[in-house]
Specification:
mainly alpha; 57% helix; single chain; 0% strand
Amino acid sequence: MPKRDIQTISHASATNHRILARPDEPFPDVAFHQTTSLPDLIHVNPAPGQAGVPPPLLTQLAAYGELAQNKPEYTEAYLKVLGRLEQTEPNEPLVQAALGRRDLKKGDFQSAAAHLRRALENDATTATTYSDLADALAHMGETEQAIPLLEKAIGLNPFDPYSRKTLIVRLIATKQYPRATTALEQYVEYFPQDGIMRQALARAKANSPQP
């Protein structure tokens, strides 16, 4: 494809969100005049005739969940929306996965596992759901059952260092040392900048039986 000199990007016409086309472009008026009942989110591109109407709760859950990962001040709003969805749309896979993560963080591992299994049964087959279920099972002493779930999580998101590190820990805990070394090699291949894990791999190779 030949390279083209494009000065602006008509991004909003192709997706359901909006970015600035030029660095000097002003923010839309809606950014300064709240038009929905949401106190901390602005629906910039509502559907025709839906201006001032809050987005669906599932959309709000996804938005607040993403924001809360790096901005804890959104956690309260996220949990509030989740509580409403638990009553109104409990069978939604996204809701079940979120309930599982909530209970996992609360330390209620049995309830977390039940929610996460329901999410997976309803096709919420995301890397996070598999990883969360693996964590819940490991906390209940079912480490062997957690390992294939972590492998599925890595298959869906190979660039997640947490799942890869957790897999190494679980393999070591179950005394599967050759597999742990292989997983460590794969981790270092994806994250060569991690000096601590490179050192761990060097020690593992030095201590492994020579052929």
